[in-house]
Amino acid sequence: MTSTTRNLNILLSGVLQITLLVFFCSAFSFGQTTIRGTVLNEQSKPIADASITLMLARDSTVVAFNFSNANGEFSILYHGNETDLLLGVRGFNIKQ
User: What pLDDT band is residue 47 in, cutting at 50, 70 and 90?
Assistant: First the structure.
């Protein structure tokens, strides 16, 4: 094997590894949606520690949940592919 052939094999091996890495990383990130928001009261003040629940609209199955932070902000990562979802918020003195 000549040095040119060996260098080409090493280069192709590296390209294959990078291609596979990009493929697998994109496969894991496919279908992920981040839902962000802020929970505010009637006076537009943030509500901390509110329970945020993401549910399927068809049967109310909980698919993700989180809590709002001190600024009332929340973030939920959803991995499914359902398009009809419900977002529920519960907390101290929150009217549904």
Answer: confident
